[in-house]
Automatic annotation (TrEMBL):
Keywords: ATP-binding, Nucleotide-binding. GO terms for cellular component: cytoplasmic side of plasma membrane; cytosol. This is Pilus assembly protein CpaE. Gene3D superfamilies: 3.40.50.2300, P-loop containing nucleotide triphosphate hydrolases. InterPro entries: AAA_dom (IPR025669), P-loop_NTPase (IPR027417), ParA/MinD_ATPase (IPR050625). It comes from Bradyrhizobium huanghuaihaiense. Residues 160-317 form the AAA domain.
Length: 422
């Protein structure tokens, strides 16, 4: 068993969802075995095993608590993580001493108990317990505890993946994703990368006025070469904080991918970038579904008509069912107010989805068309356009961050800068 990993948690609400600012990094490919005493805890652990963040972990659940764990490992090697439920104090400490005699070096132990006592906690730490979680626990408590075992405080934070997808083709999801990524980089001062996943018809290169010789296709078709250095060579620099992993946008080959084709790319980007914005094409396949479900946050872009309403509702229902321990996806309405076009009001949209849109972006073909044709963002075309504030609002909701305060300049600023230089 290893030494203490993080501080004990206070009592937590059962089955609570993580707050907006909390980012639980996915666990690596590890083996986890849980020994539970109550069916409620076993059910919570089982639900946790179905969470996307434990998708790579191999989880096995047994009843019997500490006694069953000691007996199981007398003749079998221990996994990477052992989760133990225990009700007692003396039985717990004595059981841990016995478990230590059959436990392999490097195995991490998480204890789920009902005694909230600092003396007990110190004894657990002294015996090498990695985490102590107070019962009753919900699935997200188990997910948090296991995942945080592999997120050392001194390690570089694992990047947050934001997926942007259109409820229907032609609703402007790519435009929204590119401008939101621009706001994340410029206004929130986060290093971000846009990954254009529409390999045949992607527009990120055009929108950012970039024409890199390499891009995401080189990584997808050479999965054995994917590592940090390889991905860095494929990135195209757009601004100081924003990079692009461009799509080839050519038709000289077909782009039929397996379900896990992008996993290596996403995992590598997570290790190098604080924020990854996925521009997901409007298509339904194994890999697009996997990318959406595996993302930390999701934005659905919809136009105010019936087909978009139906598709948004279907996406919401699927994603909420597939991600029970995550916040629901966000959605925004785009191209609102097209002249002479009958539209579904935002209030009716919200009533059907049971969620309010983040923003409703008006239909303004002049400025959006000019930006697209010039390879610029809306903020570069018109610094005070009202949609810029909407993009920032979306960026803040997706990242949980506030706008970075800009220092005010004064008449003495040039002189102060010269003195600093000297």
């Amino acid at each position: 068993m290893i030494s203490y990993a993080r501080q004990s948690q206070e009592e937590q609400p059962e089955a609570s969802l993580p707050p907006v600012e909390e980012h639980i990094a996915p666990a690596p490919r590890v083996s986890v075995q849980a020994f539970c005493e109550t069916v409620e805890t076993a059910a919570a652990v089982q639900s946790a095993g179905e969470d996307r963040r434990l998708g790579k972990a191999h989880l096995k659940i047994q009843m019997g608590g500490m006694a069953a764990a000691i007996e199981a490992y007398r003749s079998a090697p221990t996994p990477n993580v052992i989760v133990l439920e225990s009700d007692g104090r003396n039985d717990l400490l004595g059981g841990l001493d016995q478990l230590a005699t059959v436990c392999d070096a490097g195995t991490r132990v998480v204890v789920i108990g009902r005694i909230n006592d600092v003396t007990l906690y110190r004894e657990l730490v002294r015996r090498g317990v990695s985490d102590y979680v107070l019962a009753p626990v919900g699935p997200i408590d188990v997910v948090r505890s296991i995942c945080n075992l592999f997120s050392a405080p001194e390690a570089k934070a694992v990047g947050r993946i934001i997926a942007v997808v259109g409820a229907k083709g032609g609703v402007g999801a790519s435009t929204i994703s590119h401008n939101v990524a621009w706001a994340i980089a410029r206004d929130l001062a986060m290093d971000a990368v846009v990954a254009d996943l529409d390999l045949a018809f992607g527009t990120a290169g055009l929108d950012y006025n970039q024409d890199p010789p390499q891009g995401i296709a080189d990584a997808v078709f050479s999965p054995d070469r994917v590592d940090t250095a390889f991905i860095d060579r494929l990135l195209s620099k757009c601004t100081d904080h924003l990079s692009l992993l461009a799509a080839p946008a050519t038709l000289d080959r077909v782009y039929d991918f397996g379900t896990d084709a992008f996993d290596a790319v996403f995992d590598t980007l997570r290790s190098t970038m604080p924020c990854i914005v996925l521009d997901i094409p409007h298509q339904w396949s194994g890999w697009t579904k996997r990318a959406l479900i595996g993302a930390d946050d999701i934005l659905i872009v919809a136009a105010p008509d019936l087909a978009n309403l139906r598709n948004t509702k279907n996406l919401f229902d699927l994603l909420k069912a597939s991600r029970p321990n995550d916040r629901p996806p966000l959605y925004c309405l785009n191209q609102v107010g097209v002249p002479k076009r009958p539209e579904i009001a935002a209030t009716e949209f919200a009533k059907a989805i049971e969620s309010q849109p983040v923003v409703s972006i008006p239909f303004e073909p002049q400025i959006f068309g000019s930006a697209a044709n010039n390879g610029q963002m809306i903020a570069e075309i018109s610094a005070n356009h009202k949609s810029i504030e909407m993009f920032l609002q979306i960026a803040q909701r997706l990242t949980g961050r506030s706008e970075t305060k800009k220092q005010k300049s004064s008449l003495l600023s040039p002189l102060i800068e010269k003195l600093r230089g000297k």
